[in-house]
Structure formats: structure tokens, C-alpha cells
Amino acid sequence: MSEHSFIVHEIKGYISSLFLVEENNRFFLLDAGCSCDFYKIKRFFEKNGKHLSSLKLVVVTHMHPDHAGGVRHFKRLGIPVASTEGAYKWYRGIGGFIQHKIDTYLAKFSAKRKGNIIEDVRYDRFFQPDFLLKDNDSLPFFPDWKAIKTPGHTFYDISVYNEEKKIVYLADLVLMLDGKFVLPFPVLFPKLMRKSLEKVADLNLKKILLAHGGMIENGENGIDFRKVILDLKENLGGKIRKEFRLLYPFCVFPHDKLFCVFKKGCE
Fold first, then answer.
1. Which of the four CATH numbers 3.60.15.10, 3.30.420.40, 3.20.20.140, 3.40.190.10 does domain 7-263 have?
2. Helices 255-263 and 93-113 meet at what angle, rounded to 10?
3. Rounded to whole angstroms, what are the CA distances from 178 to 135, 149, 181, 213?
4. What pTM does this model have?
5. pLDDT tens across 51-104, in order?
6. Which residues of 26-141 form beta strands (DSSP E)?
């Protein structure tokens, strides 16, 4: 494997796809998955004759249970975790406590919708990252990859981008459900989401990695990433999926959401 080449391994997690990026026998993980996904990741290494110690970094894009749920397992083993400043405090305060309970329920709802058996998705409201990532920061130990801020779904979302290979992990910025590209639920900050979609549309991407949708090549089945993303931007503010309508009023508890509403700066 040359200095700038890598392999992306996709692991089907409990709710979302988990991506392990391998460079020169070292790995980093794009999101920690649900708590129960840790054992799927561990089995991947065992099956491929590798030790978990070759996992050098876990990147957490935002604090939802299928992205940050497994953090405590990696921290316990001394594997460093990187995230954005503020993301690990998303559930602070009474509002954050309520939101954490709601998001845990939503994880179970999503698993049930996928036909999965119910597993334990409880996870910590807070964690302390080993590395704090700002917009356009290179990942620790993997300088060809950088974090780019893509808020909208929450206030602190990031995506992870390799400029040379034109590949990006979008986490929950865009989803593919039932064969269609859709926006995540909820979009708490529409103005920020619009800017994030515009930023990604301008990257001239060759491949996208979706936590809900897997690995997709540009041009595959006639897909034009730029058009897809800009179409989603135009659909911002459209109807909420039927199964989520009753839940939306309960998704405004984080302090950051209320701050933006009162300041009228993020809506």
C-alpha cells in the first residue's frame, strides 16, 4: 500500500454503517456506532488477523447514539477519540438530559423500523475527546484527511474529507432510505444545513460514505452527487416524514437550539 493509498472497510452496524479506513496497516474509525457495535468492530479485527491496537483513532461526528454510543469502550482501551469542541457537551443541562432520552428512544425506533432485534443502546451523555477538531483541521495521525464543519442536523456536526481522492464521509448530513436520498431527522438548524449542503456540493466528489446508505460512487446508477445535494437543499423546509411528525416538537431541547431560536441566527 503506497503512502497515499487506503482501503475503506464498511461494517454493518446495529443502525448505521461503520467505516474503518486502513492506511499502511493502521486504522481510524469514522464514528463509534452504538454501544453494541463495539463488538462488531472487535470481531472485524479478529477475523482479519489484526489486533485492535492497530486502531489509532476514532472520529465522532456528532453525539447521537449510533455515532457516539461506543465511545466509552474505545476510551477504556486507551484508543484516542477526536471530535469537535462543543459536540461532546451537546446534552448538557436539563434540556440536554431530556434530549438524550429522546435520542436514545429514536435509536430504538430506528432499529425496530429496520427489523433488528432490540439491543442495549444506552450511552453516556458526555465524554472528553482526546483531540478537538476545528474546521479544516487534519485528523491526528492521518494528515490526508480533514474535518469539515457541516452543521444542520445538530449544531456541531462534522464530515471527514480526503481532498486528493475526493471522498467524504457525510455521517448524517445526507441519508439514503428506501433507495432515495433524503435529509436527516431532525434538521434543527435549516440555515446552517443549507450552507453545509452548498459546501459539500462544491467538493467535486467521486465517492461518498453515508452512515445510512453505505458507500456510493459518483455516476453509479446515473447518480450526480452535486445535483442530489443541491436538490436536497431546495427541499429544505419540506414535509417531515409521517413517522417523525409527532416527535419533532420534542427535538428542541438542547441549549444550542433554544439559543439560536431566541437569537434568530441559526434558523
1. 3.60.15.10
2. 110
3. 32, 27, 9, 9
4. 0.92
5. 999 999 999 999 999 999 999 999 999 999 999 987 878 888 888 888 898 889
6. 26-30, 55-59, 81-84, 131-133, 138-139
